Amino acid sequence: MDALELYLKEVRQIHDSGAAVAETSYYPALAQLLNEIGSKLKPKVRCMVNPANRGAGIPDIGLFTADQFQKAADLAPRQGQLPSRGVLEAKPPSQKVLEIAATEQAKKYCGKYGLVMVTNLREFLLVIQGENAEAVPLESF
User: Fold this and answer.
1) pTM, whole model, 2 decimals?
2) In the chain, at which end, N or C, are there fewer CB atoms within 10 A of the end residue's CB?
């Protein structure tokens, strides 16, 4: 199975368990998907669930390049590093990604990190900060 198939299978299993929390129960599946895809990029991108608050709140996932870690085996990036590839904000499938992108939270993340991926677990949308501090959609999947 490819990374997306594994992700969708995991999300379904979590949902079908009946024990899932609407958002946070799915973070491990998202992290696995993003790390698998990120391992094929140049430079490699690694995700970290709930990176430290750097002034805009605590993102669900931070996306860091390999050079931000002291050693490849390190679990956390060097102290004080902002995720160089932006952050991810996840919400339940009941929300639309354009609605997520328009939230104050997503706008704050755009201002701090430059690039935000928003998801409702089945749709993904990249957004950047526009001239009037609004979230401007880029690409979606």
Assistant:
1) 0.88
2) N
